[in-house]
Amino acid sequence: MALQGRSPSTRVKAERRNALLAGYRPLAGAYDEFMAQDGSIRPHWEPFLTEWSALSQDELNQRFGLADRHVHDTGVSYRVHGDIDERDPQAGERAWPLSHVPLVMTGAEWQTIAAGVAQRAQLLASLLDDIYGPGEMVAKGLLPGAVVTGSPDYLRPLHGAPDGGSLQLYAADLGRGPDGRWWVLGDRAQAPSGAGYALENRLALARAFPDLFRTMNIERLATFFQGFRAGLVAKSRRVEPRICLLTPGPLNESYFEQAYLARYLGFLLVEGGDLMMRDGRIHVRTIAGPKRADVIWRRIDGDFSDPLELNARSALGVAGLVQAVRQGHVHVANGLGSGVVEARALMGFMPKLGEQLLGEKLILPNVATWWCGQPRERAAVLDRLDEMSIAPAFRSAGSGLDSDPILAGELPAAERAALRARIEARGMDYVGQEVVRLSTMPVFQNGRLQPHPVTLRVFAAATPDGWKVMPGGFCRISDEPDARAVSMRSGVRSSDVWVTSDTPVEQVSLLPSGDRIAIRRVVGTLPSRAADNLFWLGRYLERTEATLRLVRALLGRLIDADTTNPARPDTVRRLANLLVAWGAAPAAKAATGRGSAARNLTAAKGSPVLAQATSALYDAAEYGSARANVGEARRTASVIRERLSIDAWRLFGDLQRQLTLEPGRQPSEGEVYEVADRALKTLAAFSGLSQENMVRGAGWRFLDIGRRLERGIATCRFARHFAETTAQSDGLDALLDLTDSQITYRSRYMLGASLQPVLDLVMLDPYNPRSVAFQVDRLDIEIAHLPSLTEDGMLEAPRRLVLKLAAECRTSEAGRLDRTSILLFEQLLMGLSSAIADRYFLQNSGPEGSRLTGIA
After folding, report:
1. Which residue of 103, 391, 735, 855 has the smallest Cβ count within 10 Å?
2. pLDDT tens figures, 222-268
């Protein structure tokens, strides 16, 4: 965004600069990225500071708002380990803690970091090849065997397997010491996370400061992801491989990032249940049968990847995956056993291993580490225990420590003595590390810049042209002024890393050039799980709409009380009873004492009917309420968020805000009516997005099938309640309101609502987009386009049922419709729903699974 208006004067800029720097002082004994010890600003930060000095506080807040809205609108989130509610996957989500100040680094300094990270990635890759291959490092005494076999991440079934411990993506956690040198604090080779968050940090800050981003010539990130994707493609034996990103699921700490990267890179997001092993190969369960998976980028721990040969308790992996890897039929990145090199116990041996495997000294040394499994090193650690940082040597080593280091000198005497005793008894579970004081960088806080400790995570990818390092990464900033180790927990922020260039940076896209793109119009593979969730997303949204229409129709009649209409009380009663039967509201006698939204709504403050309407709108405890159904829709959408646009995701947030009642509020009839009306408009916007923006592939078809089925079922229920043989015009008017057919009816008939014309319009009219017949016609079209798994020439169950429904709609007459015949339509629709689920969502669980064909 270009600055608006006249540029501030030199004096104003100087005042703003002084205000930003007021009180900024490097911490004693720490290197500061922004300011030298003499108080001068480091030259590569000057463009940044100059730009900020030209902005007023209001303008800065506006820029920050742009970045924060990007995080909010795109739903960038993460979880803290253990902060999970399995009943509500969104309950434990936290907004990504973006810091508005990037870490700025010169291109010259970054070249050293990049060279060191690439070298370390190659070292770990070579070490993994040796560990799962000849084992020369152990045989030569350069690496104790217990460091390998004592690690829970060493997977013996992968020894000798092709790519058993291969490294495709590596991340290094770096910290800068007081002398200005960068040190490796930790290695990430199991399933490195954060690359997607680095990209989101970049998008957010580039949106806030586009001019600054361009004038400082910041290196782009797209080339890194381009190389990473090319590296995975190169591991397949097919020209156009099917690459899957294997996720633990929506309860994982970094699920947002996994879904985001799958969409960004064009990979198929799958869970363990989406995959199956057949004939030594891994296949994806899709609506068109099993489809071969060529490459799997896993984001689950290696030992959880196969319950047959690894961790039998795992519900996340794929039975038979290890066998497929051993036979060379699938490439897994990173290799299933790659986590072994993450052990801190290895860090003390890295310098000698680097000289042996690479013939080079390490460009980036790691923090000094002593593995207590060796007598001399254990004695050294115990002698200097009060000066040491003590950490578990391996993941889940049973050391009694969390994964983060602790400062032994700060423990109470009793705890320090207990720690000493544990190290003496079982030293192999511990390492002692030198305490490194981290460097600091500026954070904007209380209207000025303040120094905070920072660590840097840098990523390297194996590409066809060698190791490529992301020109940036992301940094983690502690709120504690003397932090020794920073982990992504409460009180920690994240920001982008800007690597500057002396020359303009080439604009790079992740897309290849036009002459390298193979034109296609066929939509990619749709896993059965994704189809299932799209189907139910459509149903939950339609249920929400039906509840909202009921609430609006009910309150519209309460507000517009027609005392001359004797049928009005009966219509109100029927609408209220339908909300109760719908599961959206409690019975009238309990309306004042049940549910958070209905609580305290007494007859004196508002009628029981208003309490029921309020509950149906706001009360998540009522499973059929609008609030509950929107929650279910968002939960379902969160599992397939890689298939939904940002605009669609934003609408879920809008709906949840609209359907949230402030504690203690007792809304009036008019307020509840208005909220229901606004929520219906928001739902209409989602319908417009799906109709106008979604490609007409299998995913869209299942979303539409779910909506059509639910709308048809709801219309049948509405008709059964209001279209009796003794129905009065007020009840029929309510039916027309609920099916949004008033305008159509009045344009056709000059008289008031009459039973047979109303029934024909809402049940049998194929030209009315709200009628049952119209839904059946659309279902017929959509189901006809879905893949068939049988080749015997016989119609499958969903097709048979929809044809039967279509025949009933076309041959029925309005004059012969009664509650029994309408119930038959409803039951047929529900039977069709079950047939679709059995056929497309539960493959290989019954007789239908034995007839799957079309393996590709």
Report:
1. 855
2. 999 999 999 999 999 888 899 999 999 988 888 999 999 999 998 99
Residue 176 tokens read as 């800068």
Evaluate if residue 591 carries a pLDDT over 60. no
| Exposed/middle/buried for residue 814 (C-beta within 10 Å: 0-12, 13-18, 19+) | middle
Q: What is the pLDDT of residue 644?
A: 83
What's the mean pLDDT in 570-587? 90
Q: How far apart are CA 79 and CA 90, in angstroms?
A: 10
Under DSSP, the state recorded for 405 is: -
What Å distances lie between residue 64 and 20, 206, 449, 481, 766, CA to CA? 15, 11, 14, 23, 52
Place of tokens 């084992």: 135
Residue 134 CB coordination number (10 Å):
11
Say which range, 396-405, 594-603, 811-820, 846-855, has the weakest mean pLDDT: 846-855
* Distance from C-alpha of 47 to C-alpha of 53, rounded to nearest angstrom: 10
Tokens of residue 769, six digits: 């987009």
- For residues 565 and 573, is the Cβ–Cβ distance under 8 A? no
Q: Residues 637, 644: contact at Cβ < 8 Å? A: yes
In the beta sheet, which residues pair with residue 270?
246
Which residues are bridge partners to 171 per DSSP?
188, 459
Does the CA dihedral 631-637-638-639 come out positive or negative? positive
Q: What is the pLDDT of residues 434-454, one digit of tens each?
A: 988 899 999 998 889 999 999
- Percent pLDDT > 90 in the chain is 63
Structure tokens at 702: 């299942």
568-581 vs 528-559: helix axis angle to the nearest 10? 150
119-122: long-range contacts at Cβ-Cβ below 8 A with a sequence spacing of 24 or more? 119/354, 119/358, 119/360, 119/362, 119/363, 119/364, 120/170, 120/172, 120/184, 120/187, 120/362, 120/364, 120/460, 121/167, 121/170, 121/172, 121/460, 121/462, 121/467, 122/358, 122/467
Integer Cα distance of 761 and 781 in angstroms? 21
Q: Tokens 């291993």 sit at which residue? A: 353
Long-range contacts made by residues 490-493, C-beta under 8 angstroms, separation at least 24? 490/80, 492/97, 493/97, 493/98, 493/99, 493/443
Q: Give the Cα separation of 114 and 458 in Å (integer).
A: 8
Contacts of 597 (CB under 8 A, 6+ apart): 614, 615, 617, 618, 619, 625, 627, 661
Count CA atoms closer than 13 A to 276's CA, side-chain side: 16
User: What is the structure's pLDDT at 484?
Assistant: 59
For residue 402, give the nearest of 515, 487, 467 by alpha carbon. Answer: 487
Computed over every residue of the chain, the mean pLDDT equals: 87
Between CA 338 and CA 128 the distance in angstroms is 7
DSSP, residue by residue, 463-489: ETTEEEE-S--EEEEESSTT-S---SS
Whole-angstrom Cα distance, residue 739 to residue 764? 13
d(CA 705, CA 141): 64
| 98 Ramachandran zone, left/alpha/beta (phi>0; psi -120 to 50) | beta
Q: Which residues contact 800 (CB under 8 A, 6 or more apart)?
A: none
